[in-house]
Each structure stands twice: as structure tokens, then as C-alpha cells.
Design goal:
Keywords: Membrane, Transmembrane, Transmembrane helix. By secondary structure, the chain is mostly helical. The protein is built from 7 helices and 2 strands; from the N terminus they run ββααααααα.
Length: 176
């Protein structure tokens, strides 16, 4: 094993070879102690219980805030054709799953929001209607951007390239 992994040579200590009762050889490798290599790390103090509780509450509040903001953006996207809805719903369900299970369950059971989230989680599927709608919106945005003289040239070229890449990736996703 030591010959197959040269990286182990540096961490191996003395090698011992002895004869086994069945006639085979037994090779033992003694690891070098950390104190011998001066590789000791400073130990982190163990936090007290109140610090752990505070960290958990803060992380739960952060996940809940992400879920609420993403849901708000998804609702805006349902009204405005330029803002996508489903990606924000996916982020909201993911964040809610980390810090707000009741809200995640509500999203999954919602009449309008639930089916796309469930399709995505089960198979990464995107409906054909969503593919057509997002591709046409990206195409309209890319064409419309070409008529704005205040947009720099690199942005007028780069944005449609990114949109075309996203559309290609989207159409490669499975359908329901």
C-alpha cells in the first residue's frame, strides 16, 4: 500500500516486517504522532449552550428570510413577464426546507406553486410551456436590448450569449 501511494510516505513512521504463523509476511506501519511533526493546530474552544442556541436561531432566521424574499420575487414574477417565477420558487422551497419546514410544506401543497417544485425535485423536469415562455421572454429581451443605445456593446453581445446558454440548458432538461 505504501508503494502505491507515495503521498503516504511522508506520514508513515517506522515500518516493521514480521513472519506470520501461516508463512506470510505481516507489514506494519506506525504513524508518526502529531507532536513529532510539529503539526498541532490550535484548539478551538467548545462554545457554551447559549452560543449554540443563538447560532441555530440566527441561521433559522436567515433561511426564513431567504425563503420569504425568494417567494416574494416569485410572486412578482407571476405578475411581471420579465421576472422568472419557478427559479425563485425552487430557492424558496430549498431555503424553507433548511429553516422553516412548515413553509416548505405549504409551498409543496400549494395549488399553483407546488407542482413545478415537485417536478423539479423528482426528476429535474421543466414543463414545455415554461420552456417556451422563458425562451421567448429571453429572446424578446435580447432583441429589445439591441435598440437601447445607452447599453454598452459588450453587454449587448454578452447578455444574449448568456441567455442563449440558459435556453440551451433549459431545453436539455427533461419534461413532465
Amino acid at each position: 500500500m505504501l508503494l502505491a501511494f507515495p503521498a503516504l510516505w511522508a506520514s508513515a513512521g517506522p515500518v516493521g516486517v514480521s513472519q506470520e504463523s501461516n508463512g506470510g509476511l505481516l507489514i506494519t506501519i506506525t504513524p508518526i504522532c502529531k507532536s513529532e511533526t510539529n503539526m498541532t493546530r490550535p484548539k478551538r474552544p467548545i462554545p457554551d449552550e447559549s452560543t449554540v442556541v443563538l447560532r441555530r436561531r440566527m441561521s433559522m432566521l436567515l433561511w426564513r428570510a431567504v425563503a420569504v424574499v425568494a417567494t416574494g420575487l416569485a410572486i412578482v414574477g407571476a405578475v411581471l413577464p420579465v421576472v422568472p417565477t419557478v427559479p425563485f420558487l425552487l430557492v424558496a422551497a430549498w431555503a424553507a426546507g433548511k429553516g422553516w419546514p412548515a413553509f416548505e410544506l405549504w409551498l409543496l401543497r400549494h395549488e399553483q406553486f407546488g407542482p413545478p417544485i415537485q417536478r423539479w425535485r423528482e426528476s429535474g423536469a421543466v414543463s414545455r410551456r415554461a420552456k417556451w415562455l422563458s425562451t421567448s421572454m429571453m429572446a424578446c429581451s435580447a432583441v429589445g436590448m439591441q435598440f437601447l443605445s445607452t447599453v454598452p456593446l459588450w453587454l449587448r453581445i454578452g447578455t444574449p450569449v448568456v441567455m442563449a446558454s440558459v435556453a440551451l440548458w433549459l431545453w436539455m432538461r427533461p419534461e413532465e
